[in-house]
């Protein structure tokens, strides 16, 4: 599946090559499929080509949704990292308890259990 991302056209040269910016990176794209594109338009970009022109409202809404998806993914990743850290801490605690129990066994200082008489 491919994702076409709305981008703002910042300039167009005489060869129908437009300059756009995506995430702070300026790129050149072809307008061969969208000759009606003008500076200030939002174009859907796929594989270096503008494949459609969007109304500014639609482009802004799409970009807002993409930002929300990115934020949700980052929050999910942070939660997963926190869960991993908790699991590692629990594992370390269990290892420490096991080591302490083994030390008691090796020293022979475990409490007596049952009805043992001396």
In short:
This protein has 118 residues and is an alpha+beta fold. It has one helix at residues 56-107, and strands spanning 5-12, 17-22, 25-30, 42-46, 49-54.
What is the strand and helix layout of this fold?
Elements: E1 5-12, E2 17-22, E3 25-30, E4 42-46, E5 49-54, H1 56-107
Antiparallel strand pairs: 1-2, 1-4, 2-3, 4-5
Describe the overall structure.
The chain is rod-shaped. Strands 3-2-1-4-5 form a five-stranded antiparallel sheet, with helices on one face. The protein is built from one helix and five strands, in the order E-E-E-E-E-H. 12% of the residues are buried. The protein has a domain at 5-54: SH3 type barrels, CATH 2.30.30. The protein is of the alpha+beta class.
Judging from the principal axes of the Cα atoms, what is the shape? rod-shaped
The arrangement of helices and strands along the chain is EEEEEH
Low-confidence stretches: none
Question: What is the CATH C-level name of the domain at 5-54?
Answer: Mainly Beta
Radius of gyration, in Å, reads: 31 Å
Distance between the termini: 77 Å
Q: Specify the oligomeric state.
A: single chain
Largest sheet: 5 strands, antiparallel
| Individual helix count | 1
According to CATH, what is the topology of the domain at 5-54?
Answer: SH3 type barrels
Largest sheet: spatial strand order: 3-2-1-4-5
> What's the count of strands?
5
